[in-house]
Write a structure and sequence with these properties.
The protein is mainly beta. The protein is about 10% helix and about 40% strand. The chain contains two helices and eight strands. Strands 3, 4, 6, 7 and 8 form a five-stranded antiparallel sheet that branches. Strand 3 and strand 4 form a beta hairpin.
């Protein structure tokens, strides 16, 4: 529009188009669904998948090395799955994931446990 109007404000405003972007309401993402472990063939890895929320900006994955130890953020991704690497083979890890949106964090997923390949 600006190129055609030559940058003249009067021409831009008379074209009948909205000239301002409508604000998008802040939303808190929903709980991520179908959180599961998927087979991954490489040693020291675990592949996680889930169904995401379209309102999320990104997802954070947390891992617990042993029950009772603190949860640690191991990945931040915009995708609905991730491969976590550099793990000890045959060690049982626990994972959980949550989405982050413009109005804060969504609910934490259920915890799942998996052995690294």
């Amino acid at each position: 529009m600006q190129a055609v109007s030559g940058g003249v404000a009067e021409n831009i405003l008379s074209a009948g188009f909205d000239t301002t972007r409508q604000p998008v309401p802040a939303t808190t993402p929903k709980e991520l669904e179908n959180f599961k472990v998927v087979y991954h063939p490489y040693a020291g890895t675990v592949r996680l998948k889930w169904t995401g929320d379209a309102n999320a900006h990104f997802n954070q994955v947390e891992m617990q090395y042993k029950q009772g130890e603190p949860w640690v953020i191991v990945a931040t991704t915009r995708r609905n799955g991730i491969v976590i690497g550099q793990l000890e083979t045959d060690h049982l890890y626990s994972f959980r994931v949550f989405a982050v949106g413009s109005a804060g964090n969504g609910p934490m997923s259920d915890m799942i446990s998996a052995k690294a390949a």
